[in-house]
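User: Second chain of the day. Same drill as before.
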Amino acid sequence: MSPISFVTQPGSIHRAYYLSSIATTASLCNAMVRGHWSIENRLHWPKDVVLHEDDTYGRNPNALLNASLLRSITINLLRLHGFKSVTSALRELAN
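Assistant: Same format as last time:
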């Protein structure tokens, strides 16, 4: 499934349309879209915003991939230890 987004002007409603070649029900499509955004919000957003992954640069693609994997493992370990927020976990563990 791939989204097609239309935003007309600031303050307007963001509407996304998804195209799929899968013969499925509306409720299953809804679950798949929500599942995608769950991953985006629970993993990619903390990596980008809290751990500044988008600011990372380097020449060796393998090193960048390994650093990204370590960030993902770190986030998952923090969640396994009961932390709801990566930011609050880092603050608590830094003291």
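The chain is about 55% helix and 10% strand.

User: Great, on to the next one.
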